[in-house]
Specification:
Length: about 230
């Protein structure tokens, strides 16, 4: 199955902003690095200002080592912000820590990264678990990364303008879109099984991911999400 580049637009700062992000999630690497070469080609083609990753990068330790090499390469040209997914911790910290200490590549599991766009606007980026440390400044935008969007508590999103998530793989089988644009039948089990949702004043964008532990999809393309902030 080929990779689709899905386009999303978010409007901040009264339309005065011009920034792009690539949102990448759920790669589930085993031995092959073919998918990494495709991702790299997409990065080169899009030339984003920022690369944001929302977890589940590998299913085997060799995949973690290959993914580290990939991060070391792409972070030479682009700032990378990431969190870990549930698959990234199953082999313990010795393996998961391979993703750390890479120049220009920042884990925001327990920290906040402030990014300034070329237009001079400020973004505070952190994990859902660290959301309580976000500032409440009208001149800045807060972006939260979460692997599993089902853990979102809608009553706690008031300071957050944008949430990026993965994990659900779009349900892997999409028979049709519901009236509220959710993916059926995945939406029967998962309330956030959709490409995009509005949670009060917060935009949630969910990636269908690039790999699967269960290797079957129907009408559910593997994707990289390009987000243009305007």
């Amino acid at each position: 199955m080929e990779i689709v580049e899905r386009q999303e637009k978010v409007h901040f700062f009264g339309g005065r902003e011009s920034m792009s992000m690539l949102h990448i999630s759920d790669i589930h690497l085993w031995y092959s690095t073919n998918i990494l070469r495709k991702i790299e080609a997409s990065i080169v083609s899009n030339n984003p200002d920022l690369i944001v990753l929302t977890g589940d990068y590998y299913d085997l330790p060799i995949g973690a080592r290959n993914f580290r090499a990939f991060l070391c390469k792409i972070s030479q040209m682009h700032t990378v912000i990431f969190i870990k997914g549930n698959h990234d911790t199953i082999y313990g910290t010795k393996v998961s820590n391979l993703l750390l200490d890479i120049p220009n590549c920042y884990s925001v599991e327990n920290s906040l990264y402030q990014y300034q766009s070329k237009q001079g606007y400020l973004y505070n980026i952190t994990s859902w678990e660290n959301r309580h440390h976000l500032p409440n400044n009208a001149d800045e935008k807060n972006i939260v990364l979460i692997h599993n969007p089902e853990k979102i508590k809608v009553k706690e999103v008031s300071k957050i303008q944008l949430i990026l998530a993965g994990h659900l793989h779009g349900g892997q089988f999409i028979f049709f879109k519901t009236k509220n644009n959710s993916n059926f039948p995945g939406s029967i089990l998962y309330k956030h099984c959709a490409d995009r949702k509005q949670l009060i004043n917060t935009t949630l964008i969910v990636s269908k991911g690039l790999g699967d532990t269960f290797p079957f999809r129907l009408n559910c393309p593997k994707e990289i999400v390009r987000i243009d902030i305007e």
